[in-house]
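// run 5 | inverse folding | seed 20
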């Protein structure tokens, strides 16, 4: 029998495999090709892949559409490319804050879709991270200003919806504006959703779909977070985004719900009673950690009682927590959740709590998240780490590294939010 820690990691890996882009993209394109193959023979086909999963999505698209592709572009996060793909230019850029390479990539994409006709097609392959990786600034707005605004929103705990509502108005390619540039060509978007509720105009800031946010909302967000804005940025927030896009078709090929239910199925195969409690967890990482730990304690105390979720069991959560950064440490939302949870299960046996990002990276670190048990805090203290101070300083990475509790997967090639799990025997 495998240990609880081994089972937790295996369940996470199986769940991530279920939302890898290759299968989803192949299925979506084969279905789409049935009705469009004749049209592809008479015009150009431009394929643009954006996000952390862009390389894998583009590779799968080449398998299906290689003979039709006129030109293609992959824009992904640093170290997420896995080599050349025929017909595609591969570019990497910064995440979560854009850099000059993001702008070069955006300008390249705009160049590829110039002068298309109604006979031509554009396929967009979109995954999480596209907002930072793909950029072209609005006239009068500088990249430095976008970077400053993005950093302020992240530091102050803004949600991805709020961040992207602002970014759309500072960009010439977000919020449906790129789709406008592709007109009159037909556009088909295949999306791996990393946004709770799968709002199409939020995923990668919706470059190819109508935008449902408003300038009034953008200005309210800026006010609520007391953002420091230049005069040009304030003017950009006044501008509205496209509210309708003709000749456009969209398909969501993978999301956090699929990942969570795949985790539950794998847990059941391993002998645990599974429960997917929510796929839209959205709160402070520390508070989520406390909640998961409280559930673990209750499940252990209720052993043997009727009508309770009793061990062996697995409670699965999906979503994306937030961190209000007040310290100067190193970490990410999943690591902070795990460190917070470790306090609530200290001394418990037969319980582990996992929190990890499906993309294999958590914040500006090389870890996917954390996996803690009842002895995690003891191991930290044995290594000279004060876990209370680590949590206060937002320094979860070094605390979990000291206790051997980092989840290290490397880039997975997909991105559909985070998976959290309480596993009990």
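// decoded
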């Amino acid at each position: 029998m495998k240990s609880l820690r081994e089972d937790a990691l295996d369940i996470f890996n199986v769940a991530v495999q279920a939302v890898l882009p290759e299968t989803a993209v192949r299925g979506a394109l084969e279905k789409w090709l049935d009705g469009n193959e004749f049209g592809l023979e008479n015009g150009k086909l431009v394929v643009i892949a954006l996000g952390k999963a862009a390389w894998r999505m583009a590779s799968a698209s080449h398998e299906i559409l290689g003979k039709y592709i006129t030109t293609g572009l992959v824009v992904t996060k640093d170290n997420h490319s896995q080599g050349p793909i025929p017909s595609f230019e591969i570019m990497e850029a910064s995440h979560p804050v854009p850099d000059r390479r993001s702008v070069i990539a955006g300008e390249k994409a705009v160049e590829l879709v110039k002068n298309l006709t109604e006979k031509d097609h554009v396929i967009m392959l979109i995954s999480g991270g596209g907002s930072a990786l793909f950029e072209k600034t609005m006239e009068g707005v500088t990249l430095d200003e976008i970077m400053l605004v993005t950093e302020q929103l992240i530091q102050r705990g803004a949600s991805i919806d709020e961040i992207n509502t602002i970014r759309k108005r500072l960009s010439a390619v977000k919020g449906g504006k790129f789709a406008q540039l592709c007109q009159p060509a037909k556009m088909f978007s295949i999306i791996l959703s990393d946004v709770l509720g799968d709002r199409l105009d939020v995923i990668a800031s919706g470059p190819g779909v109508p935008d449902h946010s408003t300038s009034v909302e953008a200005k309210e967000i800026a006010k609520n977070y007391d953002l420091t804005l230049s005069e040009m940025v304030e003017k950009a927030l006044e501008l509205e985004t496209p509210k309708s896009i003709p000749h456009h078709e969209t398909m969501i090929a993978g999301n956090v719900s699929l990942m969570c239910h795949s985790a539950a199925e794998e847990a059941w195969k391993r002998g645990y009673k599974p429960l997917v409690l929510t796929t839209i967890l959205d709160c402070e990482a520390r508070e989520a950690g406390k909640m998961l730990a409280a559930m673990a304690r209750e499940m252990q105390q209720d052993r043997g009682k009727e009508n309770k979720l009793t061990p062996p069991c697995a409670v699965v959560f999906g979503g994306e927590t937030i961190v209000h950064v007040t310290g100067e440490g190193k970490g990410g939302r999943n690591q902070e959740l795990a460190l917070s949870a470790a306090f609530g299960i200290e001394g418990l046996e037969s319980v582990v709590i996992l929190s990890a990002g499906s993309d294999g990276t958590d914040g500006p670190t090389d870890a996917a998240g954390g996996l803690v048990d009842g002895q995690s805090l003891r191991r930290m203290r044995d290594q000279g780490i004060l876990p209370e101070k680590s949590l206060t300083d937002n320094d979860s990475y070094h605390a979990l590294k000291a206790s051997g509790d980092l989840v290290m997967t490397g880039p997975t090639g997909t991105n559909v939010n985070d998976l959290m799990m309480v596993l009990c025997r």
